[in-house]
């Protein structure tokens, strides 16, 4: 059985604090890149 890639991306490698920020930003409608920048993923 193949795994599908439809489930949302997992942020388990991030701290709970950062996951909270990501969730809040998602709810406010921010773009994925803005969220990544905000939590320092791309640094």
Average pLDDT: 76
What radius of gyration results from the CA coordinates?
12 Å
What structural class is derived from the secondary structure elements? Answer: mainly alpha
Taking pLDDT < 50 over at least 5 consecutive residues as the criterion, the unreliable ranges are none
What global shape is seen? globular
Strand content: under 5%
Task: Determine the number of helices (DSSP H or I, runs of at least 4 residues).
Answer: 2
Protein name: IS30 family transposase
Structure write-up:
The chain is built from 2 helices and no strands. The protein has 43 residues and is mainly α. The chain has one domain. The model has no long low-confidence stretch (mean pLDDT 76).
Main attributes of the structure:
43 residues; mainly alpha; 2 helices
SSE layout and pairing:
Layout: H1 16-28, H2 32-39
Provide a brief overview of the structure:
This is IS30 family transposase. The chain is mostly helical and 43 residues long. It has helices at 16-28, 32-39.
């Amino acid at each position: 059985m193949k795994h599908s890639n439809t489930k949302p991306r997992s942020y388990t490698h991030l701290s709970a604090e950062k996951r909270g920020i990501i969730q809040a930003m998602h709810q406010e409608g921010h773009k994925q890149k803005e969220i990544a920048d905000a939590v320092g993923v791309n640094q």
